[in-house]
Amino acid sequence: MFDPIAQTPRYRLVAEAIAGKITEGVFPTGEKLPPDRVLVEELGVSRATLREALIALEVKGYIETRFGSGAYVLGPPGAVAEDADQKLAAVVPVAPVPGPFEALEARRLIEGELAALAAQAITPAQLDTLWGCLQALESAGSGWDAEADARFHEVIATAAGNTVLARLAAQFWRDQTENPLWTAIRSAVADSNLRPQLVAEHEAIIEALTEGAPEAARAAMHAHLDNFARTLLAQWDAPEEGSTEAAPHARLRDSLGQAG
């Protein structure tokens, strides 16, 4: 009788709102977008949500981020559809996939507890598998072995012995791999300066599991995911100009309606 009511991720609404202003000419081609702090206030969203929206717009060709300068408008990449669903699809995929930082936040909640449970039940064979994954991560050429990374977290989820939490963790991984925004920001780990940090964090998790220390395992997993989120966020941050700059454009919240 009724069509399913989809839950639209907030970053997608923000991306569509900004894309609409670009199409309308409020943000002209070649102009720098307002600073993050202005957009966050105008849209009434978190900084992480705004960054996800800007990443979506960059992936779709609406803007480009110039390191050390900011985000600049490239213009609408194509004709703008009249239908609301089509307009959203022009910016990011229609499927209600959560944003990368939202997914990392959820992973922190679930995988921290999985690590704590695993510390009390992990087997020697599973620990050997984790060390093998770590070795693969260390020797992954110029990139990052995403398969070994996924396997690492999968083994911990299995070792925890809670199938419900393990399924949730697996779903988070699927959401990430299916999200083109995640693919865009995940490329940051190819940086050789970042890999040693990630490897060290994975090793700290294994050591806590080996010691059978639940609190230490939870803390190590939290530290890993927190540091990863901060690092990825920093990859897309552009230094802002003086805080005295006033918002140069009309409020954007209207573009989001009640969702803001």
UniProtKB/TrEMBL annotation:
One Gene Ontology MF term: DNA-binding transcription factor activity
Gene3D superfamilies: GntR ligand-binding domain-like (1.20.120.530), Winged helix-like DNA-binding domain superfamily/Winged helix DNA-binding domain (1.10.10.10)
Keywords in alphabetical order: DNA-binding, Transcription, Transcription regulation
Keyword Secreted: no
Region (Disordered): 239-260
Classification via InterPro entries: GntR_C (IPR011711), TF_FadR/GntR_C (IPR008920), Tscrpt_reg_HTH_GntR (IPR000524), WH-like_DNA-bd_sf (IPR036388), WH_DNA-bd_sf (IPR036390)
Statement: the UniProt record of this protein carries the keyword Transcription regulation: yes
CDD domains: WHTH_GntR (cd07377)
Domain HTH gntR-type: 8-76
Record-linked SMART domains: FCD, HTH_GNTR
Superkingdom of source: Bacteria
PANTHER family: TRANSCRIPTIONAL REGULATOR, GNTR FAMILY, UXU OPERON TRANSCRIPTIONAL REGULATOR
Protein name (Swiss-Prot/TrEMBL): GntR-family transcriptional regulator
Species of provenance: Dinoroseobacter shibae (strain DSM 16493 / NCIMB 14021 / DFL 12)
